[in-house]
Design brief:
It is a single chain. By secondary structure, the protein is mainly α. The protein contains six helices and no strands. The radius of gyration is 15 Å and the shape is globular.
């Protein structure tokens, strides 16, 4: 396993462990925010595919690599094609500017590794 793959695995395990730890606390604000985040990506007037593409583009503009990886994986699960992903990447790049380029590189690297079966998709959404 390469260093990058190991970091993805470690992060995924850490995120799952800490999400459980956080949600075990009796804080209703935190619990409600996590639930709202989950509900936002459910199908409605917009389908899951569209919402995940929106989440991906927003994550690129906000420059959150963990969120970008999550949304790339969710997009693939929702049936988004590589061509559609690159169109979403292009919107994020245009909106966010050249500072997004390093995040675009990591997004494409994650996409490549995901398609080659080298990494697992993050299991839960938690924005970092």
């Amino acid at each position: 396993m390469s260093g990058a793959d190991d970091r993805v695995k470690q992060f995924t395990e850490f995120r799952q462990r800490m999400n459980k730890r956080i949600l075990d606390e009796p804080n209703q604000v935190v619990r409600r925010f996590f639930a709202l985040d989950t509900q936002a990506y459910q199908p409605g007037a917009l389908d899951v595919k569209t919402k995940e593409l929106m989440g991906l583009t927003a994550s690129m503009v906000l420059r959150c690599d963990d969120c970008i990886s999550y949304h790339v994986a969710q997009c693939k699960d929702a049936g988004v094609t590589r061509e559609e992903l690159f169109e979403a990447f292009s919107v994020g790049l245009v909106v966010g500017g050249s500072i997004v380029i390093p995040h675009l590189r990591r997004a494409v690297d994650f996409l490549d590794r995901l398609e080659q079966g080298e990494v697992e998709a993050p299991a839960t959404h938690d924005h970092g």
